[in-house]
Amino acid sequence: MLTIENLHATVGGKPILNGLTLTVPTGEVHAIMGPNGAGKSTLAYVLGGRPGYEVTDGSATFDGVDLFALEPHERAAAGLFLGFQYPVEIPGVSYLQFLRESLNAQRRGRGEAELSGAEFIKLARAQAATLGMDAEMLKRPVNVGFSGGEKKRAEMVQMGIMAPKLAILDETDSGLDIDALKAVGAGINSIMRSPDKSVLLITHYQRLLDYVRPDRVHVLSGGRIVRSGGAELAQELEREGYAEVAA
Amino acid sequence: MTVLPTRRDEAFRYADIDALASVWSDLSPPQTIEIAAQQSLQQIWLPSGEDVQVRRVDLTLQAGASARIFALNAAARYGRIELDVTLHDAADFTFDAANIGGGSATLEIVTTVRHVEPSATSRQTVRSVLGGKATGSYLGKVAVSRGAEGTDSEQSVKAMLLDRGATANAKPELEIYADDVKCAHGATVGELDRNQLFYAAARGLDPASARALLLEGFVGGLWDGILGDDQGIADAARAALKAVVR
């Protein structure tokens, strides 16, 4: 599904990723853990195509396609979903309109028929219900006045609506209380746990991994993967700290 | 007919005088509208489709009257709205307007709101979206007469510039001869937020669609206060935005 080889990237001329190599096979959930400043969010943004995050060497192949040859919106249409650590507020634009236009833009890009207003609302209601979110909130402007937890739930509702092949979730667990954490974890499992989908979970803490059990855990430090292992590696990190494990 | 103004006239400081000259001899005097005490009026002003469109209105609100004006100023070459409003006791005036243009369009909104008696309220909200080498201006004077205590007025002016060659002018002006009045005004000029653009792109919107959607949000709130049929102003604004975004 996703193959990253020897990835080097800079932000504002400063090297952040320094030869990162990683493969996420189809049907698997991989977690990337690491201390602050390791390059976790940079990895997410580079894969999403954020302007200002410059790839200087290496490659990323998504479903057989050169990811870096695609514009950010083309990556979305190809089936990549980027869950934001800090979801952005858009005053004056309702969630329903934002998501309907986004989904239909993706569908146009794939040569699929667009959804009508009624079809879209039905889909949005069903996905909101799955995440335990009041569908009325989707009538409000995008993320405006949402609490931290509500924003993260809304990200998961968006993921459910977009139905991506690959989700890259950047610290989706940050700022969540325990109920929201459970709901988000259950959402990830129900939307993305499938033989034809993959997830790259980027997280600082192990607690989300209690709800979404990863197939592999990778430790990111200094812009490279320094260790990989099974789900038990997350517990080891939690117990012994990054300094010990990443050394 | 009076002589053609020049740009030395403050109210025509940013005007396209050549374009104005092309319609000057045909220009009728300002339309006069008077709203009787306790009555209310709503008007929606759409572009005529002409390259040059000048609209001039003198509006008087008697005691307790209210008026809501919604305007889309989007002529291809020169669009000018001149509005002179006189507010009597406890009258209530709201004006929501958009300047939307690209190319070399000059769009301007020139208002004078006179609070001549106590306790009247006025709210003006102007949003401009300008691309190419377009110029969008708002010159707005609020004059509060002696004795017009309890006046409450507000001017909110925001502009979004899409290209380097575009220009926005905002000049809210206050002339106050009464005590105990509230006159708020604010003006900002900016460009689209990069974080919002990337967020929209990450959800699948191509750059032109993302810009159009964000601009629709910027302008869209103007029409929220319309009672009943909006006579197509929201659609017309959306179409004008699409043309500016390209």
TrEMBL record, chain A:
Keyword terms: ATP-binding, Nucleotide-binding
Pfam families attached to this UniProt entry: ABC_tran
One MF annotation (Gene Ontology) recorded for this entry: ATP binding
Entry superkingdom: Bacteria
SUPFAM superfamilies assigned: P-loop containing nucleoside triphosphate hydrolases
Family to which this protein belongs: Belongs to the ABC transporter superfamily. Ycf16 family.
InterPro entries named among the record's database cross-references: ABC_transporter-like_ATP-bd, FeS-cluster_ATPase_SufC, P-loop_NTPase
NCBIfam families (alphabetical): sufC (TIGR01978)
Protein name per UniProt: Fe-S cluster assembly ATPase SufC
Limits of the ABC transporter domain: 2-247
TrEMBL record, chain B:
Protein name stated in the entry: SufD family Fe-S cluster assembly protein
InterPro entries membership: Fe-S_cluster_assembly_SufBD, SUF_FeS_clus_asmbl_SufBD_core, SUF_FeS_clus_asmbl_SufBD_sf
GO terms for biological process, alphabetical: iron-sulfur cluster assembly
Pfam family, one: SUFBD_core
Residue span(s) of domain SUF system FeS cluster assembly SufBD core: 48-218
Any coiled-coil regions, as ranges: none
